[in-house]
Every structure is written in C-alpha cells, then in structure tokens.
Amino acid sequence: MADRAHSLPENVEGSFFVDSTCIDCDTCRQIAPATFVETGEYSYVQQQPRGEEEERAAFRALVACPTASIGAAAKHGAKEAVAEFPWPIEPRIWYCGFASRKSFGGSSYFIEHPAGNWLVDSPRYVEHLARRLAEMGGIRYIFLTHRDDVADADRYAARFAATRFIHRRELSAQPEAERVIEGFDPQQLAPGFLVIPTPGHTAGHCALLHDRRFLFSGDHLWWSRARGRLNASREVCWHNWRQQMESVKLLANYDFEWVLPGHGERVHFPQPQMKQELSNLIAAL
To answer: Is the whole model's pTM more than 0.90, yes or no?
Structure first.
C-alpha cells in the first residue's frame, strides 16, 4: 500500500500520489497518461484527474501498479477499477492489468479464441482476474515471450490446466513448461498463431503473431512516446544487441497492425503504415 509519508516531492497536491517505492515501469503512464508522467527515474502525479474518466483511469493505474506505489485519499474507485480488468483493446484482445513486480511491471494479454483462449506472458496472480478469465472460458495456452515476463505463469497454468510455450533457451524460467520451442525457425503453434523467434534481448526471446494482425512483441520492440516511433534499445538488451537488430529486420517479412509489447507502449496502425514504421526503426538502428 502506498505511503503518503513517502510521497514523491514532484506530486501535485491532491488525492492521488506516487510514493518512493516506484520502479519506473511505465504501467501507470500507459493507463492514465493525463495524470502520471515520468522524471526518467520514477513516475509522479503531474495533474490530478479532471473529471470522471480521468479519475477512473487513475484508479485503474492504482490497482495495476506492480509495487502498490500509487495511493489516493478516496478509496471509492479502487473496487470498481479492479472489476474493469481485463481491459479491452480490440474485440477478443484484452490487456490483463495487475502487472507483476517479478516482471518489472510487464504487460500481459488475453486472447479469446474459439479453439481455446491464450494468455501471452503473465500478470501477477490475482483471484479476481483468475475468476474473470474463467468466466471468459479459461486459459488453454500460455505463451511466454522470454524469461523476464513469466511472473505467475505457473499459478495460472495450474489453475486452468493450461499448456505453457517457452523457448528452450528460456526454459530455466519455467522448467516445467509443457511445450518447448526448439530452434530459431518460425513455426505455427496452432491455426492463426505463429511463433517468430527473435533472439537478442535474451537468448531465446520469441514474438507471437496472431491472425497476421497482432504482434505480441515481448521486450523485442515497442512504441516510444519520447521518440514518436517504434523502438528497440541497446540499454535494455541483456544478451546480444547485434542479434536483436537482425531480429527486428526479420519482422519486415510479416504483416501486422498492432505491436503489443511487454514493456513500452502498444500501438496500432494500418498494415502499410506499420510497414513504414518498422522500416523507419530498421533505418534508425
């Protein structure tokens, strides 16, 4: 629970505040950008919510925060915010919220599918979310992009008897995973679900392409608000930057409209524009 006694000095006066336990994961800034901004080391409240919708977004950020670093004088909106997750992105595609400290606040996603629902990377285990996902048909598969963002995948797998996919090079993060991805060739895991190995950030990092529209990119690439373009960063490359650059180039062979990352902002463009945005990133790298 956030402690107002440790409220950051940059916070403007008012109900909402961020305390000194913030890890600068970007979750709150994505969910409630009108309220929260960054210093480069942590988030803070730049402006108190103006109106009902901004307040509801701030409460969603509060409950999603992986470190419980956000507080509010009034508690009335927290229960309602819990009930709003998972949050719809497009029909059948949902943002799970409830980010985990284990994954440094990484985003995770839920895909509704008639042949069985998918969880992409894992949120922290929260009983409300587990019940809600059960109401939506449960989880048949859990796709883990890489070792950093597995969080509580084992608990969701046990709850739903789900099959976990993870690359051989990342297996130590989920040693009991049911399906191990071998090698570095793209392969279809199920109709409409293509795994694209994208080593670089970690040795066995993989992206998941769904229906040639949705690229779940893990920590491989993301939208940068500061740069106003797709981005990949040497600063957060834990394995091999040259490999990561080559993996970015590989994505030019595929069509998609959405980039849905573990870290960084998600973004949607029509396919031709997304192709151009990817070309711009490749040129920048």
So the answer is: yes
